[in-house]
Specification:
about 15% strand; six-stranded mixed beta sheet; globular
């Protein structure tokens, strides 16, 4: 095991409230599909199609864990999106790509960013940045709101003519690291901009968007604002 893998968790546990112990999953952090079975879940860190290029420690199942408060509001957002799609003759759904994220996964990203030889996904996810810049520009951080259980990454999917759901164009893939992913980035097409705006409008009543990631939303008034959990996604 690398020395940095040992030192970084110890340092962060000392500095960040709620990081001093490995907490079990609280009863009010639940599988979002127990609240709304219609939402789609495809966790990118359970697969190799992510900016690292392989499954991430802490992800053991395709389960979206969120606080019940976030899940209930997400259910309302899904209802708004489905109603919007019905009015326009389409079947639409929210597609969740990441939800609760264990803090061990967050720290793994930091450790990965310090290994200059692992860049196999650079062309797809961070073509214009070095791994050092990913940390310097806060694309990768030692803490993440995802670990509090009320933050998620998502897009919109549409049922196609073959009957399968597929993600609609948003100008970049989820987790693309660069200014093209800023929610109001001006250099994308009209359709892609409209799709980002639709996602923002659907989620806006109950969630706040991170302006540098069009896919990233967090519950307003989240129940664990200072607690970072570390149970596995399983």
């Amino acid at each position: 095991m690398r020395l940095t893998s040992l030192l970084i968790p110890a340092l962060v546990s000392f500095l960040v409230p709620g990081l001093g112990r490995a907490d079990p999953r609280p009863a009010d952090i639940v599988d979002v599909r127990s609240i709304d079975p219609s939402v789609l879940v495809d966790l990118m860190y359970l697969s190799s199609m992510n900016f690292v290029g392989h499954p991430i420690v802490g992800y053991r199942a395709n389960v979206c864990y969120l606080t019940r408060a976030a899940g209930e509001q997400l259910r309302l957002a899904q209802a708004r999106l489905r109603a919007y799609g019905k009015r326009h003759g389409e079947e639409l759904s929210l597609l969740l790509r990441d939800c609760y994220r264990p803090r061990k996964s967050v720290l793994y990203f930091v450790d990965w960013a310090k290994r200059p030889d692992e860049t196999e996904m650079k062309a797809l996810f961070y073509p214009d940045l070095t791994k050092t810049e990913l940390i310097d520009q806060d694309y990768i951080s030692q803490v993440s709101g995802h670990s509090r259980g009320s933050t998620f990454d998502l897009t919109i999917a549409r049922r196609n003519a073959q009957g399968a759901f597929e993600a609609i164009p948003m100008g970049t893939r989820v987790d693309f690291l660069g200014p093209q992913s800023w929610t109001d980035y001006p250099g994308i097409g009209v359709a892609e901009n409209a799709n980002r705006r639709l996602l923002f409008d659907i989620l806006g009543p109950d969630f706040r968007n991170f302006s540098k990631e069009w896919w990233h939303y967090a519950l307003k008034g989240e129940p664990y604002p200072k607690t970072f959990f570390d149970f596995d996604v399983e």
